[in-house]
Amino acid sequence: MFLITNEPLSVTEVEAVVADPGAGALVTFTGVVRDNNLGKSVHYLEYEGHPPMAEKAMAQIGDEVTARWPGARVAMAHRLGRLDIGEASVIISVSTPHRADAFAACQYAIDRLKEIVPVWKKEVWEGGEYWIEGSTAAS
Amino acid sequence: MITVQVQLFAAYREAVGARQVPFDVPQGATVLDVWQQLQATYPKLRTPRPVAAINDAYATLDTVVQPGDLIAYLPPVSGGRSLIPSPSGEG
Fold first, then answer.
1. pLDDT in tens, B14-35
2. ipTM
């Protein structure tokens, strides 16, 4: 599963995709909307993306993960639209035979997602808003 | 002249005020030429060399556009340095 959606995300649904009787570990990363960034109080975030290219880039990350960690299974989902504080913007689940690989692969996947998946976020705060680009992103 | 569809995202979309606009460019125009003509129409687009895609696949700025092409211009992503996937897979 490499999914871009406007609907709320479900950890259970993403984890179900990587369920594997040969796996001894399942690690899930959930990115959630934080109420502050760079010292500013954030009201909500707007996510925008290029869905076909974003899903393609996520599938590429899935291929990179399975090349580095044979036997790993990966699923990821990213939500677009307006997200309020505490809501999940991204979920990545990885299952592997042993836990060290699951942690490492999951971290790799979220780092790569932030590098290559064409999704942008705008912070909206009291009296202003700003598209987060490049090194200005604190998350 | 040929007509292409220009697709804009995030800050670029807001600078233009539309997600997708038809745009007329001379035959033989490159992806960068299209961008520079857009900048002439929409001065809020300030990036000199944006990341671009044609028909949902990354394209270099010197690619010549064809009639009906969907040309997407993509701002830098939130957490990253470059949108171009690295062949080695190194982050």
1. 999 999 999 999 999 999 999 9
2. 0.84
B72, B77, B89 ranked by CB distance to A119: nearest:
B77
Nearest to B77 among A118, A122, A139 (CB): A118
Q: Do the domain assignments include residue A24?
A: yes
Domain count, chain A: 1
Q: Which CATH architecture does the domain made up of B2-74 adopt?
A: Roll (3.10)
Digit-coded pLDDT (tens) for A48-99:
999 999 999 999 999 999 999 999 999 999 999 999 999 999 999 999 999 9
Q: Which residue of A has its CA nearest to B54?
A: A53
- Parent domain of A74: 2-126
Evaluate whether residue A134 is within a structural domain: no
**Is A131 domain-assigned?**
no
Determine the residue of chain B that is closest to A119 in CA distance. Answer: B77
Contacts of residue A113, defined as CB under 8 A and 6 or more positions apart, other chains included, come to A57, A58, A61, A76, A78, A90, A92
Q: How do the domains of chain B map onto residue ranges?
A: 2-74
Q: Would you list the DSSP string of A72-119?
A: -EEEEEEE-EEEETT-EEEEEEEEESSHHHHHHHHHHHHHHHHHHS-E
Q: At what angle do helices A51-68 and A99-116 cross, to 10 degrees?
A: 150
